[in-house]
Amino acid sequence: MASLINSILDYSRLNNAYVELTYAWVALSHIRSRVLADIQFEAQESQTITWTEFTHDLNIQTDADFLIRAIDNVLRNALKYAGESCTVVISSHINDGNLVIDITDNGPGIPDDKLENLFNPFTRMDEARHSSQGGYGLGLVKQSLKLLGGEVSASNHLTGGLCISFSLPLPPMKAA
């Protein structure tokens, strides 16, 4: 019950912009290391999580703790709902001046008609998931990305599984 109350309070703070972000330059490899170190404790032995690396490190200006919490939230959902032997792959690339972080699993995915509401608070994909199992998590992710100046979206793979994509603006590149 305390967890649900904390989630409601967090969502309210995010939704009303009562959060002070601390922007700093941070290497994407630092975010990657922290995320992988944290989530390994939650993964079962038969679950695999990997984050493919850039060919070079990328520095981004963001609130690292805020971004890491959003990624962790999506990863915990993937581990919980994609199956006991799931594989989760995190990849990142640059597209149209944005850093895109894709979190993809090989689970059953979500019905296409439910994808639009996935990031709304208290949205449940099936009746087996009741409110004691959460309900604000992906709503928190959406609000977090919005405060960071980015967006989050979800899609299903043709071969099965869900992909949650974060898109964060990068500062313009300076001419040399």
Automatic annotation (TrEMBL):
It comes from the Bacteria. GO terms for molecular function: phosphoprotein phosphatase activity; phosphorelay sensor kinase activity. It catalyses: ATP + protein L-histidine = ADP + protein N-phospho-L-histidine. One of its GO terms (cellular component) is plasma membrane. Its EC number is 2.7.13.3. Gene3D superfamilies: Histidine kinase-like ATPase, C-terminal domain. It is an enzyme of class 2 (transferase). One of its GO terms (biological process) is cellular response to phosphate starvation. Keywords: Kinase, Phosphoprotein, Transferase, Two-component regulatory system. PROSITE patterns: HIS_KIN. Residues 1-172 form the Histidine kinase domain. The keyword Metal-binding does not apply. SUPFAM superfamilies: ATPase domain of HSP90 chaperone/DNA topoisomerase II/histidine kinase. PANTHER family: PHOSPHATE REGULON SENSOR PROTEIN PHOR (PTHR45453:SF1). This is histidine kinase. It comes from Shewanella benthica KT99.
